[in-house]
Write a structure and sequence with these properties.
Layout: E1 14-19, H1 21-25, H2 34-49, E2 53-58, H3 66-71, H4 76-100, E3 105-109, E4 118-119, H5 122-130, E5 134-138, H6 148-158, E6 163-168, E7 173-174, E8 186-187, E9 189-191, H7 192-197, H8 205-213, E10 218-222, H9 228-233, E11 240-243
Parallel strand pairs: 1-2, 1-6, 2-5, 3-4, 3-5, 6-10, 9-11
Antiparallel strand pairs: 7-8, 10-11
Length: 247
């Protein structure tokens, strides 16, 4: 990062950070790894210092995966609701970590759970952001059969975010799985149509379509590299970006 990075104006005013539940598990593969929470909280704080409004959508795969349980014979709707509850646990853990680094934080849940979270109300969420609070959207869309990727896209569109940032363990979008195919090509810029037609595993098709209909940029980046969130916010070419025009 250049010496004048702190003097540059952020490229985005309001962002939605999409975190998978697995991201919170770190190397242990399941549950919640406190050092990972601390690192993510520190990076979010760096971004808020720049004046950027940050909302976070969290998954629950580190605790329970509804689709996997459904494949094992459980009723899909029941399994998905259980997955939504897992996102509440992750949201509360992340809220605790964010508050420990001095950030005012609110958890808004699509499933009413007033003892631990506020119910999701669009205008309330926007007001929290305008007041400088970090907002964590939990429980997905509140409906079964929809992923947290779709919830991320939906919330980003609803609150008027400038971009949705999808955190992964690789440095962008590849033509194939780079861990399995040494010849996989990194694709720095793509269009929504390209992602859909090539069936690239960026987000599910519902989420991609929602972003496409609303011209919401998707930035796919490596969360494991410290400082990437700030680099993206400052406009540096980190990861891959999906837009209407692509190149």
């Amino acid at each position: 990062m250049t010496a004048d990075a702190g003097l540059r104006r952020p490229a985005y005013r309001r962002i939605v950070l999409k975190l998978s539940g697995e991201a919170l598990a770190g190397d242990q593969g399941y549950g919640i790894d406190p050092p990972v929470l601390e690192r993510i909280a520190g990076e979010v704080r760096e971004v808020t210092v720049l004046g950027v409004q940050v909302a976070i959508v969290i998954g629950g795969g580190n605790i329970f995966r509804g689709l996997a349980a459904s494949a094992g014979g459980m009723d899909r709707a029941t399994a998905d609701y259980m997955g939504m509850l897992a996102t509440i646990i992750n949201a509360l853990a992340l809220q605790d970590a964010l508050e420990k680094v001095g950030l005012a934080t609110r958890v808004l849940s699509a499933i009413e759970m007033r003892a631990v979270a506020e119910p999701y109300i669009r205008r309330r969420a926007i007001r929290h952001l305008e007041k400088g609070r970090v907002v964590i959207f939990a429980a997905g869309t509140g409906n079964p059969f929809f992923t947290t990727d779709t919830a991320g896209a939906l919330r980003a569109v609803e609150i008027g975010a400038d971009a949705i940032m999808k955190a992964t363990k690789v440095d962008g979008i590849y033509s194939a799985d780079p861990k399995r195919d040494s010849g996989a090509e990194r694709l720095a810029r793509m269009t929504y149509i390209d992602v859909l037609s090539r069936r690239l595993q960026v987000m599910d098709t519902t989420a991609i379509s929602l972003c496409m209909e609303n011209s919401l940029p998707i930035v796919v980046f490596d969360l494991t590299r410290s400082g990437n969130i700030k680099r993206i916010v400052l406009g540096e070419p980190v990861g891959s970006i999906v837009t209407s025009s692509g190149g």
